From TrEMBL:
GO CC, alphabetical: extracellular region
Highest classification ranks of the organism: Eukaryota, Fungi, Dikarya, Ascomycota, Pezizomycotina
Native source species: Evansstolkia leycettana
Pathway(s) per entry: Glycan degradation; xylan degradation
Name this protein carries in UniProt: Beta-xylanase
Gene Ontology terms describing biological process: xylan catabolic process
């Protein structure tokens, strides 16, 4: 057992990474957890699960706090792990001043621009990439309601990428990649088609986008097929983009989470998603799981009664899913 990132790197092309909800949480001081997290043979990439989100980086208007983000970057850099910076513009986890403000299109656009410029320029090229806009679409491909969309209209989406591009250019960090990140865009359909249209519209406006983040939050037994996941990735790649699996987990929608048949199905589900990235070739540049362990998984907090979604159990033992990923890599 050489570690999943070591296997991924040996396969030649991609990293294997994880989200980590640090600092300020129990896992921040959990030695057994940190021992797994900080080993670059396990994870070649870390995504801050929360630390770089709007409510933490700009808690009050034009008052910035980079402590949490810097903490994640420092930890990752000590171990040669890269960081996908997450995220700049999203409907959720906004500061009160944004949610409660009385905005016009112009004034909220200025808030968005100011946030993007400060955060992007502070973290600079320590970020491998930015999720510039997160989860902008409904299942039917229309823009979902958010303070951004409701106040600014669809321009918010294009402007966010434009500002991120400009902020990076100003500090000569044009190699930091710009991503759109979402769920439900891992298989063919209306939502994936809508992502293609957003990319084309950005191109029409001469605004850069480098990649699509496929969150890949799946349920045991309901992971999209290898063929569907592969062809969808190939579709984004055909637009000239990189793709990454950014938030992979496979949750049980009800207990038990640890019986043999269930874990076998879950292992198969992980195998399918990882294989789709391998088969897509070198433009599928990495796979990130959203928490690696059931001890600290976000799932039970968000989906009542659901859990067991990760590749290590709640006592940090590798599950069958772990070994299935090793096989796929
Ligand atoms: C989740 C975090 O894991 C939780 O700790 C937090 O309470 C809510 O957000 N899609 C995303 C991530 O893009 O930012 C979300 O992270 C999970 C769903």
């Amino acid at each position: 057992d050489v570690g999943l990132n070591a296997l991924a790197q040996r396969a030649g092309k991609l990293w294997f990474g994880t989200a980590a909800d640090i600092p300020g949480t129990d896992e921040t001081t959990d030695a057994a957890y940190l021992k797994i997290l900080e080993n670059p043979a396990n994870f070649g990439e870390i995504t801050p699960a929360n630390a770089m989100k709007f409510m933490y980086t700009e808690p009050e208007q034009n008052v910035f706090n980079y402590t949490g983000g810097d903490y994640v970057l420092n930890l990752a850099e000590r171990h040669g792990q890269r960081v996908r910076c997450h995220n700049l513009v999203w409907a959720s986890q906004l500061s009160d001043f944004v949610n409660n403000g009385n905005w016009t299109k112009e004034s909220l656009t200025a808030v968005m621009r100011n946030h993007i410029f400060h955060v992007v320029q502070h973290f600079g090229r320590r970020c491998y990439s930015w999720d510039v806009v997160n989860e902008a679409l409904n299942g039917d491909g229309t823009f979902s309601s958010s303070i951004w969309y409701d106040t600014i209209g669809e321009d918010y989406f294009y402007l966010a990428f434009q500002y991120a591009q400009e902020a990076l250019a100003e500090i000569h960090a044009n190699d930091v990649k710009l991503y759109y990140n979402d769920y439900g865009i891992e298989n063919p359909g209306t939502k994936a088609d809508a992502v293609h249209n957003l990319v084309k519209e950005l191109r029409k406006r001469d605004i850069r986008i480098d990649g699509i983040g496929l969150e890949s939050h799946f349920e045991v037994g309901f992971t999209p097929s290898l063929q569907d996941q592969l062809s969808t990735k190939q579709g984004y790649i055909a637009l000239g983009l990189d793709v990454a699996i950014t938030e992979l987990d496979v949750r049980f929608t009800q207990a038990p989470y640890y019986d043999a048949a269930g874990e076998k199905q879950q292992a198969q589900d992980y195998y399918t998603s990882v294989s789709s990235c391998i088969e897509a070739g070198p433009k599928c540049i990495g796979i990130t799981v959203w928490d690696f362990d059931d001890k600290y998984s976000w799932v039970p907090y968000t989906f009542a009664g659901q859990g067991g979604a990760d590749i290590y159990n709640a006592t940090l033992q590798a599950k069958p899913a772990y070994y299935a990923i090793a096989d796929a890599l």
